[in-house]
Amino acid sequence: MLKEILEVTFLQNSVLDYLIFLLTILVGILIVRIIKALILRRLKAWAEKTATTIDDFLIRIFEKTLLPLVYFGVLYLATRSLTLNPTLTKIIDVLGVILLTIFGIRFVVSIIKYSLETYWLKKEKDEAKQRSVKGILKVIKVIIWGIGITFLLDNLGFKISTVIAGLGIGGIAVALAAQAILGDLFSYMSILFDRPFEIGDFIIVGDYLGTIEHIGIKTTRVRSLSGEQLVFSNTDLTNSRLRNYKRMGKRRVLFKLGVTYQTSLQQLKEIPEVIKNIIENIDDTTFDRSHFSSYGDFSLDFETVYYVMNRDYNKYMNIQQEINFAINEEFEKRRIEFAYPTQTLYLSKT
Description:
By secondary structure, the chain is α+β, with helices and mostly antiparallel strands. The protein has 10 helices and 10 strands. The chain folds into 3 domains: 2-154, no CATH class; 189-246, Roll (SH3 type barrels), CATH 2.30.30; 251-334, Alpha-Beta Plaits. 59% of the residues lie in helices and 17% in strands.
């Protein structure tokens, strides 16, 4: 009786075939649930104890991306025990290709997103850079989904060579029309990866100088010393020779002064030592040299070099001012006079 029931055929499959189909699904789901409950839970507990985040990411991506594919794989294997209509078999195969493509694309996008957020933004909490990364991710997603859909259509039997050729011609036309925009976009990528400057850096580009306020996909905005905002295209900045003063470890300072020709030899010999003592007694400075350098048209010229161990311009100006005050004070004590343009006129009676 039972054997006869199992051999009853319905839609080209016996009752036994359907039971094997259901049993395969139940066993497959049970195995997946056991793996998820035991192995995956232990892996999560282990990942929480580690300092790195890559293990958490891998477990998360396995749970969200690979587990649904495993469930579909169980269903696909179960259908192999049935004799299905060719149309239904084709539908299942197409569905499998679609799911593999979708989850494959999501897997690739997740890896790229994790890489950008972890290794690019981990050192800084820059909101502007985070917005920029989100914009880049949108572009990357569009490109990856476009490639994925193209491969999907090709696997489904569509002739996409003509479409690709048309897109290629259209892409060339768009690239020529948007050449400046694409140039700025690639320059933006170059700035983000090469990092010649960052937000907050003080730069000089040609005759313009100021502090970086914003680095966008097309333009970079600089706040000048006089208060107005300067807007540069990213291509202009990457093609220019710019000076970044924020990355200056120390500032080299050279200044000259001249004294009158009436200054005695003994006083001339004292001047370099006087300047040296003044600079060495000021914090955040390193004395380099001071010399009687030349005979000028109306002065005896001295040249001094020292370093300010700070990149702040206001700090440098305060130190230079303090040096100037001290030199003036010491010269007054020694009755040394600063030179200024003078002419001596000799008259003779005939």
